[in-house]
Amino acid sequence: MLVLIKGGRVIDPGNLDGIVDILIKDGKIAEIKEQGSGVEEQGSGVEVIDASGKIVTPGLIDMHVHLREPGHEYKETIKSGCLAAAHGGFTAICPMPNTNPVNDNGQITEYILKKAGVADTVRVYPVAAISKGLNGKSLCEYGELKEAGAIAFSDDGNPVSNSQLMRRAMEYAKGFNMPIISHCENLDLAANGVVNEGAVATSMGLAGIPNAAESIMVMRDIALCELTASRIHIAHVSTKESVLAIRNAKKRGVKVTAETAPHYFTLTEDAIKDYNTNAKMNPPLRSSQDREAILKGLADGTIDVIATDHAPHSYIEKEVEFDQAANGIIGLETSVSLSLKLVHDGVISLTGLVEKMSTNPAKILGLDTGITAGRPADISIIDPDLSYKIDSSKFQSLSRNTPFNGWDIKGKAVLTMVGGKILFDVK
Amino acid sequence: MRFTKKDILDMESLSVDEINLILDTAYKMKEISIRPIKKVPTLRGKTVVLFFYEPSTRTRISFDIAAKRLSADSLSIAASTSSIVKGETLADTAKTLEAMNPDIIVLRHSSAGTPHLLARLVKSSIINAGDGMHAHPTQALLDLMTVREKKGEISGLRIAIIGDISHSRVARSNITGFTKMGAEVVIAGPPTMIPKGIESLGASVSYNVDEAICDADVIMMLRIQKERQKSFLFPTEREYSKVYGLTKKRVENARNDVLIMHPGPVNRGVEIAYEVVDGPYSIILDQVTNGVAVRMALLYLVSGGARNAGAD
């Protein structure tokens, strides 16, 4: 079976950028061809995908999602999350370990991968817990977890408050050449906060979480990363102080990488007005100065990755008192569109976008990707100019908790292919 | 002017004209409470539910008396004796209540924004009787009424609000209410209790009580809660009363026509000295009296006011 992706601008940063055709055979990239070399005329067996006017990229990777299986399948299953990913343009996702039970042992990792195998859609690379039960007290068995298929370690949702445990986790993970992904939050400072500390929180009478609750831990983790000569990936960066700390650390050569989520570069704390629980997340939406700093960090490469922190919750967790509402929003099916806005606004280039959504996460996670002959055909096609209205009722995700419903937006993922198989085609 | 608001959620959402109408109506209502027969038929056949998720004595009783003086049927639900303890969500409780067709739900809740949520979920009018640290509009309205009654006009006055501004819905609603009506508001307290960005509500900030109260026409003291010591907001009650409390000496240095207010309940000897509570400048009990009048006015106005009630 032959598939030809024809006439698109192929962007594979560091490797390829131009209008070329991609010939796919038996699920693998067979050949990169100059335009119009006439393969499609050769025989009836060639399926042609017309990508003219569109961007063809190595499969997009969302390295920070929450699937709710096992434990909370009414919010999201592995299968529904994978379908949401495919419809959002992603070929691979990394589910965080805060399921119930927690992914802190090989059997749970295997269970997740088995379910993902049955779903047979996008690739799933589980992130396992740093500590047993995410309790911050003892290390998980990283060797067994790696063997089972875990790709990184994180206690995401909970910070690792014990600095000694964090130090040892970084050192121990180094032995397996696997990254630690850190949820940076000082719980004493965050206290009972539910939104960003500042004028909006004050006028709404909501308890605030100061920027320092995040940046203190970012700085600690950078210090531990230097101490242990290992590497650290900072999850969901939301503050200007964190951006500054990461930028300075990178200048000194510390092996720190960082991600932010579309909501932190798209929205500010103003989105919580009227007590909109679909704008409640942790870390919280910050001030416009923080958002500006995130944009700068994306532009100058301080922030390597755009990841969604896709956090499905049902209305049962969201249509409640603001203080009690669950943290987080879904992101898989809006991420490409919101990130393309960065390109339209001139913050990053299309190449920059592909780096942050594919190349860089692959590098951090040690995945072998790219558009070259012989590699599996994991490919995303994006139409940067397709205008549409976001309609959460059409999402594949089982949850609807998004503040972006009803937004008019330009740019969309239009086709997702994994191993040569088309999982999503907007047509 | 006709009052068209369905709900009373916070001071931000009330216009100056609406506030004046509420206060004018409250003055008329006040007279009912000093009649020998303290009851008018105005809200006969209306049902008022007092839904209190948080302990309250004065606010709940004030609303209850207000409803009864207008002949409305009022009933109280406390969270501890309701289905909340069985794990029912607020949304479900609200929809269940709604199915019984109450006209007005008065809500007190420990989480900010809960009246706003309820107002979205049900058709009944919602009156916010205090939501978390956010708002206490009926308190601000009764404070405005009391000050206007004593001073004639609010515009041009200097109001000092002293204490734990961070945790105070009374402070927030009063800052918004008094500045909206043309007064100048200064707040003071230890920096640990002054929330970031409070200036955006229109108040100026001082860390020095003496500075804040000199030239103040009104001094409003806020209750200090002992449990705040645990979150390191102040070291001891002893030190607090010395540095930030309204002592007799501080009152002596204030204007000779100053009004001293407190939303209650008072911690005598902590934020305010014994003799000051009972002293000549204190209008703390006038606040309580006017509370009933303001709540009568609000029940009347959100019920449709002159449109469908036989007002007298």
How does this structure look, described?
The complex is a heterodimer of chains A (427) and B (312). Chain A is α/β, with parallel strands linked by helices. Chain A folds into two domains: 2-56 and 374-425, Urease, subunit C, domain 1 (Roll); 60-365, Alpha-Beta Barrel (TIM Barrel). Chain A has 13 helices and 19 strands. Chain A has helices at residues 78-87, 106-119, 142-148, 163-174, 187-190, 199-204, 212-228, 240-251, 262-266, 288-300, 315-318, 335-344, 350-365; strands spanning 2-12, 16-25, 28-34, 46-50, 55-58, 60-65, 90-95, 123-124, 127-128, 152-154, 180-182, 195-196, 208-209, 232-234, 256-260, 305-306, 379-389, 408-418, 421-425. In chain A, the strands form four sheets. In chain A, strands 1, 2, 3, 4, 5, 17, 18 and 19 form an eight-stranded mixed β-sheet that branches. Chain A has a six-stranded parallel β-sheet with strand order 9-10-11-14-15-16. In chain A, helix 7 packs parallel to helix 8 (240-251). The mean pLDDT of chain A is 96. Chain B is 37% helix and 14% strand. Chain B is globular. Chain B is of the alpha/beta class. Chain B folds into two domains: 16-136 and 288-307, Rossmann fold; 137-286, Aspartate/ornithine carbamoyltransferase (Rossmann fold, 3-Layer(aba) Sandwich), CATH 3.40.50. Chain B contains eleven helices and nine strands. A five-stranded parallel β-sheet of chain B has the order 7-6-5-8-9. Chain B has a four-stranded parallel β-sheet with strand order 2-1-3-4, sandwiched between helices. Chain B has helices at residues 16-32, 58-69, 90-98, 114-121, 137-151, 169-180, 209-213, 237-244, 248-252, 274-277, 284-302; strands spanning 47-52, 73-78, 104-109, 125-131, 158-162, 184-188, 204-206, 218-221, 259-261. The longest helix of chain B is centred in the last third of the chain and has 19 residues, at 284-302. Residues 308-312 of chain B have low confidence and may be disordered. At the A-B interface, helix 6 of A face helix 4 of B.
